[in-house]
């Protein structure tokens, strides 16, 4: 008997025991959507001095937008070039315009409107994802996102990383967990049609599994629509790279990461979409962990471990499904 035939998790059409982004997209749009990374040329408040300088210790100079075209190109041109590249990989006419680099609500509202409206009008775009910080959501921005969500699907991706304030200081995050909660709740109340995704990172300096799972449990309590779990990568040219080279940081081991992810999923409500279970690092600038380069094998081993231990997303929250 196939694993998919005895899978106790209901939001799956395969052996996956968690709700994958692909499953969600098939249910919502009828098939796969290509996510097109874009760089609108924004910065961050912990880079320009508003709440700090230097940015988060793990962030590259492109602000996690390394896979996007350069911001000197228009949103339309970036989209065209990247969509053409991805067409060789994904056979789909549906695309998500993904404002990924730096903090994408950290600009005057007229500029945000210009960028987002341009993206919304592009051929094939069925939704817009906006990566930002919870402390960069002014009331006027939330009001606009609410209006925009009446016309096109909007997802706002909030970088939580950790709920631990000591960790936030170590990584130079520039805001507290209380600040994050405030921004999230105001967005949820002010723009109810906007989907909200939390980003969390496993393997941050000073964190053990207990602290990582505490972030997961607090995430579950806030109940976003989506979650991305990332492995902390060490990228050349970052402050974290210096710390690593000095011998002051040790990356997570492969088995520890897989075990932590499997346990974490059991605490996440089953209706939350799991958009990612590991992260991408630019191959040319990745220092460590080297094992992270083989993403498919990591995901396969997560699936295997969940099957062998009879685990599934939300298991610790509900014993069975009716």
Q: What key attributes describe this structure?
A:
about 325 residues; alpha/beta; about 35% helix; TIM Barrel
Describe the structure.
The protein has 322 residues and is an alpha/beta fold. The protein has one domain (3-308): TIM Barrel (Alpha-Beta Barrel), CATH 3.20.20. The protein has helices spanning 21-29, 75-86, 109-120, 139-148, 165-170, 177-190, 209-222, 239-245, 254-265, 295-308, and strands at 34-38, 95-99, 125-132, 153-161, 195-202, 226-231, 234-235, 273-276, 286-288.
CATH architecture: Alpha-Beta Barrel
Total helices: the number is: 10
Q: Do you know the CATH topology?
A: TIM Barrel
Query: Would you tell me the structural class of the helices and strands?
Result: alpha/beta
Please mark out the parts with pLDDT under 50 across 5 or more consecutive residues, or reply none.
Answer: none
Mean pLDDT: 92
Number of domains: 1
Instruction: Report the strand count.
Output: 9
Q: Please give the largest β-sheet.
A: 7 strands, parallel
- Termini gap: 22 Å
Helix content: 25-40%
How many whole angstroms does the radius of gyration measure?
19 Å
What amount of the residues lies in strands? 15-25%
* Order of strands, widest sheet: 1-2-3-4-5-6-8
Order of helices and strands: HEHEHEHEHHEHEEHHEEH
General shape:
globular
Instruction: Please identify the top-level CATH class.
Output: Alpha Beta
């Amino acid at each position: 008997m196939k694993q998919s035939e005895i899978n106790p998790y209901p939001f799956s059409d395969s052996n996956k025991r968690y709700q994958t982004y692909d499953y969600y997209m098939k249910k919502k749009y009828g098939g796969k959507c290509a996510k097109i990374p874009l760089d609108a040329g924004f910065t961050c408040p912990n880079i320009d001095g508003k709440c700090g300088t230097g940015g988060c210790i793990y962030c590259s100079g492109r602000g996690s937008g390394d896979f996007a075209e350069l911001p000197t190109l228009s949103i339309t041109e970036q989209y065209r070039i990247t969509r053409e590249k991805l067409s060789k990989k994904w056979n789909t006419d549906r695309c998500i315009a993904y404002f990924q680099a730096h903090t994408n609500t950290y600009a005057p509202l007229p500029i945000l409107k210009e960028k987002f409206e341009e993206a919304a009008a592009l051929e094939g775009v069925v939704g817009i994802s906006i990566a930002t910080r919870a402390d960069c959501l002014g009331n006027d921005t939330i009001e606009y996102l609410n209006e925009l969500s009446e016309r096109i699907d909007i997802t706002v991706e909030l970088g939580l990383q950790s709920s631990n304030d000591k960790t936030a200081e170590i990584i130079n995050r520039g805001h507290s967990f209380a600040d994050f909660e405030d921004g999230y709740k105001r967005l949820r109340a002010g723009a109810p049609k906007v989907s909200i995704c939390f980003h969390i990172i496993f393997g941050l300096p000073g964190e053990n599994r207990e602290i990582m799972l505490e972030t997961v449990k607090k995430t579950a309590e806030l109940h976003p629509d989506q979650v991305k779990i990332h492995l902390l990568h060490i990228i050349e040219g970052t402050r974290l790279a210096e710390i690593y080279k000095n011998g002051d940081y040790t990356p997570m081991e492969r088995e520890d990461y897989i075990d932590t992810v499997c346990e974490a999923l059991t605490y996440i409500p089953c209706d939350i979409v799991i958009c990612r279970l590991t992260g991408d690092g630019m191959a040319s600038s990745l220092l460590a962990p080297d094992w992270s380069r083989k993403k498919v094998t990591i995901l396969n081993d997560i699936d295997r471990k969940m099957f062998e231990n009879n685990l599934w997303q939300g298991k610790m929250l509900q014993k069975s499904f009716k």
